[in-house]
Amino acid sequence: MGFVRCLILALSKKSNLLAHQLIWNIRTNTYKNEDTPDNEMQAKLEPIARQIEIDFTTDARNFYERVFAFSDRLTKVSETIKVYPKGNARKEACLQALRSIGSEVPPGVYLPSNPEAIVISLLPESGAPMQSAAKAPYRATFRVQTVGIEQVECCADPDYELRQDFSNQYSQMAIFKVGDDVRQDILALQLMRLFQNIFEQEGLELYLYTYRVIATSPGCGVIECVPNSRSREDIGRNTEVGLFEYFRHVYGKDDSIKFQKARRNFVMSMAAYSIALFMLQIKDRHNGNIMIDDDGHIVHIDFGFMFESSPGGNMRFEPDIKLTAEMILIMGDLTAPAFQWFKELCIKGYLALRRYRHHFITLVALMLDTGLPCFRGHTLEQLNARLKPDSSEAEAGRYMHEVINRCAHSLRTRLYDYIQYQQNSIPY
């Protein structure tokens, strides 16, 4: 630990932003969960965090305190509004809390999930509590300016003044959570990033959007929103049409170039996420957790249930892949060329992951001692079994083909969507 400690402290002196990320990381990983400290990790890591703080220059300390105070205030809004019932009361409490913060955004701060951009302003009226009765995550929008890591580092200098560049300013949405261990989301996204690297290395046309998630303290985190996208739930609430009709409304007739491009993007992303859902056994795939971006890609979010955990006391009710009738309809039908290409991409992507299986099995193995709820004793054994290590490539390909066929038009998918509609009013 001595060499690692010296390396961490040396690197922290070279970069304020790295020091911030390390402190957030240490804050989080010295606890097994929100309420249970990990005494062994605390003994090793807390002295490192204290030394990082001691080593700050006066200007660096002011920068650190400014950024962390801003981040903590934003996160605590979730805790503040939790006591209010869902609906208008919680919404108004959220807006009121954000108005208080928005009136005094300190200069030279950034969101933990986006260290390349400086926050110009908070848009208080953008505050929106998310779907959750027991917890109270909320979404907010910020006006930020991309300046790059080096310029954000300069915010520690008290003489630094940001030159407004409207061409590099944009709206950035983020979700703030209290009472949720987002480390599981971080693991899922790390694995997906590894999957995407493998797909690119193999020259496969598969698309995963790995948004950023930062755990800032035990049970707290900041989640980057998928830009230029809408949830399938939102589409259902505002249009009352199916996904295929939505595509036709947005992109034009089936034979138009715009629709064909959107369909192509849909197939590439649908195949990639189908592989990820199967490999990581990601569950709770209701329409609030499925996004469609402006280019037609499907993007899955919220990975609170994966591997050996699932809703309803680990009932394992949902199928391996969410492949509904409306998703298939965008690709034509079960015999259409687009659907055949979808299956081909799924099989090729799955076979590519088999060839690199030791890379991500090792990553999962390193996380087994964290106590995350997705680990229940058989994670590696089951993950390895899904990869069919003792089968030939042809046999493994046929296996993946069977998985796709089994999940298409699954009754269990329809029943789960119906349950979510009855319990949480999520359209399907």
Please explain how this structure is put together.
- It is a single chain.
- This protein has about 425 residues and is α+β, with helices and mostly antiparallel strands.
- The protein has 3 domains: about 1-55; about 80-180, no CATH class; about 185-220 and about 225-425, Orthogonal Bundle (Phosphatidylinositol 3-kinase Catalytic Subunit, Chain A, Domain 5).
- It is about 55% helix and about 10% strand.
- It is built from 17 helices and 8 strands.
- The strands form 2 sheets. A 5-stranded antiparallel beta sheet has the order 1-2-3-5-4, sandwiched between helices. Strands 6-7-8 form a 3-stranded antiparallel beta sheet.
- The N and C termini lie far apart (about 50 Å).
- GO terms for molecular function: 1-phosphatidylinositol 4-kinase activity; ATP binding.
- It holds the Pfam family PI3_PI4_kinase.
- This is 1-phosphatidylinositol 4-kinase.
Q: What's the quick description here?
A:
It catalyses: a 1,2-diacyl-sn-glycero-3-phospho-(1D-myo-inositol) + ATP = a 1,2-diacyl-sn-glycero-3-phospho-(1D-myo-inositol 4-phosphate) + ADP + H(+). Helix content is 53%, strand content 12%.
Q: What topology emerges from the helices and strands here?
A:
Elements (H helix, E strand, L loop, with lengths): L1 H13 L1 H14 L9 H17 L2 H24 L6 H15 L14 E13 L8 E9 L2 H5 L15 E10 L4 H19 L11 E5 L2 E5 L4 E3 H8 L3 H9 L5 H24 L9 E4 L4 E3 L10 H4 L10 H6 L6 H19 L1 H11 L11 H8 L6 H15 L3 H14 L4
Antiparallel strand pairs: 1-2, 2-3, 3-5, 4-5, 6-7, 7-8
Helix pairs in contact: 1-2, 1-3, 2-3, 4-5, 7-14, 9-10, 10-13, 13-16, 14-15
